[in-house]
Amino acid sequence: MDSVEPFSRTDPLSSSSSSSITYQGQPDQPTHRHETTNITTVTEKSIPSDLGTLQSKPSQPMRDTYPLTSFGLQKRGFSEKYFTIHSWLEYSIQRDAVYCYPCRHFGETISSHEQIFTIDGFRNWKKLGEKLKKHAESQYHMKNNSKYALFLQSKKDGTVLDKMSSSSVELVQKNRDYLKIISDIILTLSLQGMPFRGHDESDDSSNKGNYKEICELISRHNTSFSESYNKYFNLSSSGIQNDIINNAGNIIQSKIIGEIKECGAYAIMVDEARCFKEQQLSFCVRYTKKLEIEERFLGFVECSQQRDVSSLWTLIINFIDKLGLRNFPIIAQAYDGASVMSGRNGGLQAKIREIHPEAIYIHCMAHRLNLAVVDSCNDIQGLKSFFNNLEIFYLCLFPSPVKP
Ligand SMILES: [Zn+2]
Questions:
Q1: Is the pLDDT of residue 289 over 70?
Q2: Handedness of CA 43, 45, 51, 57 (dihedral sign)
Q3: Cβ neighbours of residue 104 closer than 8 Å, sequence gap 6 or more
Q4: φ and ψ at 161, to 5 degrees?
Q5: How many whole angstroms from 135 Cα to the centroid of ligand 1?
Q6: Parallel, antiparallel, or unpaired for β 89-92 and 68-71?
Q7: What percent of the chain has pLDDT over 90?
């Protein structure tokens, strides 16, 4: 139900001394006092301040006696019985007069005839019953009374805007709850190192892959999730999965960078890695956090095109710039023993030391151990066969990507 805009006068009720009345809600119309001469009295009169406001209700003060006024030989006054007959009726103690609450607040036009119950106040007690009945049956009053009823209803039920707003808040909350579960599924699969997609993700597939199978499992037990999952836009596309993974990665990366900045210096560990047809640099850092050593992976840098010293140096420096770590000193660097990385004069380590002279080079301990083990095994035939067979088993169970 729509709200009813009351036809209110600026501050008509809070200041009985105000002699100027203005009208709101009709910006394209001049105020009535400029339209008709008989309304000029409006500006000269004020409405009593003891009448009801829009926030309250009609003012109906109950008194043992009301002031009496002489009508010829008789004295008459207001009677509270009229409150029972007309619920919209108001009585002003200040002016000893009655008013109509709906017409005061919702009346759109003011004529001399109508203003008796809206501005002047009616106090001809001798004809009160008759005049109230006539007013109650007038088109003007009935229209305003309907507006008042709608106003009360909208206050009780809330406006259309309120309802739309509350429904929108519920929808947003529901979508957020759904996204939380979707994100949790993605993070869990990532943590476990499990593949997301299946070979056949069509509706009639018997195995749609880990991601969709888990979504369907939750759908079977959670009605709210099921409703969102079965909609056309259900965040299950591979593009959105990647977006969520990237966003999670960015959050983790920012946290690590914050810790490095707090530490003030860091060491880098870079090695080449292959991903299908792409050659990548894996970029890791070491730093201290409350005197504990932290070792973190920060990202892959694609280096398929060129892998000479200058290209690798440019890629690493650009990556460090992108992370916002350019102004923080690198105090150590660790690579494998390949000359392009570890060369004392023309290697990557020498290029890094040109701008970070403190960055001592350390031949990666894991690579050194690997070299020592391989050399030892090559001299012992039994061990050589054992490791060869082990590698064959490994390649059989976890096939490596195709090498170009
Ligand atoms: Zn009325």
A1: yes
A2: negative
A3: 12, 47, 51, 90, 117, 118
A4: -65, -45
A5: 6
A6: unpaired
A7: 43
Q: Which amino acid is at 333?
A: Q
Residue 335: strand, helix, or coil: strand
Average pLDDT, integer, range 154-171: 77
Counts of helices then strands in the chain (DSSP H, E)? 14, 9
Domain spans in the chain, listed from the N-terminal domain onward: 32-157, 161-236, 256-363
- Which residue has 């003012």 as its token pair? 59
Helices 128-136 and 139-157, axial angle in degrees (round to 10): 70
CB 129 within 8 A of CB 118: no
- In this predicted structure, the answer to whether residue 272 has a pLDDT above a threshold of 50 is yes
User: Residue 70 Cα, ligand 1 centroid: separation in angstroms?
Assistant: 26
Q: How far is the CA of 145 from the centre of ligand 1 (A)?
A: 7
Helix (H) or strand (E) holding 382: helix 381-397
CA of 115 to the centre of ligand 1 (A): 10
Contact 266, 287 (CB under 8 A): yes
Q: Provide the pLDDT for residue 376.
A: 84
Q: What is the mean pLDDT of the chain?
A: 83
Residues with Cβ within 5 Å of ion ligand 1?
A: 100, 103, 141
More confident residue, 243 or 401: 243
3-state secondary structure of 5: coil
Helix%, strand%, coil% for the chain, nearest 5: 45, 15, 35
Report CA(136)–ligand 1 centroid distance (Å): 6
Q: How many residues are recorded in the chain? A: 404
Structure-token pair, residue 220: 């079977």
Q: Is the pLDDT confidence value at 158 over 90?
A: no
- Given a cut of 80, whether residue 363 has pLDDT beyond it is yes
Residue with tokens 């007309």: 86
Q: Is the pTM of this model over 0.85?
A: no
The angle subtended at Cα 241 by Cα 235 and Cα 242, nearest 5°, is 140
- List Cβ neighbours of 359 (8 Å cut-off, separation of 6 or more): 267, 268, 329, 330, 331, 332, 333, 349, 352, 353
Half-sphere exposure of 86 (CA within 13 A, CB side): 27
Q: Which two tokens stand for residue 229?
A: 């999952």
pLDDT for res 396? 82
Distance of CA 102 from the midpoint of ligand 1 (Å): 6
Q: Which CATH number fits domain 256-363: 1.10.630.10, 3.30.420.40, 3.30.300.30, 3.90.105.10?
A: 3.30.420.40
Residue 154, token pair as written in the block: 């909208």
